[in-house]
Design a protein that fits this description.
The chain has 178 residues and is an alpha/beta fold. It has helices at residues 30-40, 60-72, 81-89, 107-112, 132-142, 151-163; strands at 50-54, 76-79, 95-96, 116-121, 146-148. A 5-stranded parallel sheet has the order 3-2-1-4-5, with helices on both faces.
């Protein structure tokens, strides 16, 4: 979905918008399709760097294996306080980063630093532009950082990265010539 064209809106999509967008990835499996779709959307899928994680309470347990795999692949993890607490209790190392409302330096400072290549944010839905979670997701889109707002998509991204595949490893077909 083209958030570059729609400013001051939350990038967290509801079910009615998740299937709408400007790119479509078709592949032999979900991971190939996601790889194609993300690259077509303009994301550079990095194999190193930072991952910022800030998830709502109901997603904290489910994000643990995702965070663990990112850590195993050598990524640096950053998390807001509640998420970081859960990661730490589960022996997953992460760097604490302040929420916007907690003063600077904070998640925006971190996103602007260039250290972050992926954001996983399932923070409380709120269509209000002044909410921290909305501002964080908006900043990630402005910086062309791959921002994931669903745990299942984050799981699939981890599988894509673990596979080591690049766009050169998947079949490209011009659907206008089929």
């Amino acid at each position: 979905f083209s958030f570059e064209k729609l400013t001051d809106v939350d990038t967290m999509l509801g079910p009615e918008m998740k299937s709408t967008g400007e790119c479509l990835g078709i592949g032999r499996n979900l991971e190939d399709a996601l790889l194609k779709g993300l690259i077509a959307a303009g994301f550079d899928l990095k194999r190193e760097g930072g991952v910022l994680i800030s998830v709502r309470d109901s997603d904290k347990r489910e994000v643990l294996p995702i965070a663990d795999k990112f850590e195993q692949m050598g990524f640096d993890l950053y998390a807001t306080s509640g998420t970081q607490s859960v990661l730490t209790r589960n022996m997953i190392a992460s760097n604490l980063v302040r929420k916007i409302s907690d003063g600077e330096p904070n998640v925006v400072t971190l996103l602007e630093s260039g250290k972050i290549h992926y954001v996983i944010s399932t923070s409380a839905k709120g269509r209000l532009p002044e909410r921290d979670s909305v501002k964080m997701r908006r900043k990630s889109i402005e910086r062309s950082i791959c921002s994931l707002t669903a745990i299942d998509t984050a799981k699939s991204l981890v599988k894509v990265l673990e596979s080591g595949k690049t766009i050169n490893d998947v079949e490209l077909v011009d659907i206008t010539k089929i």
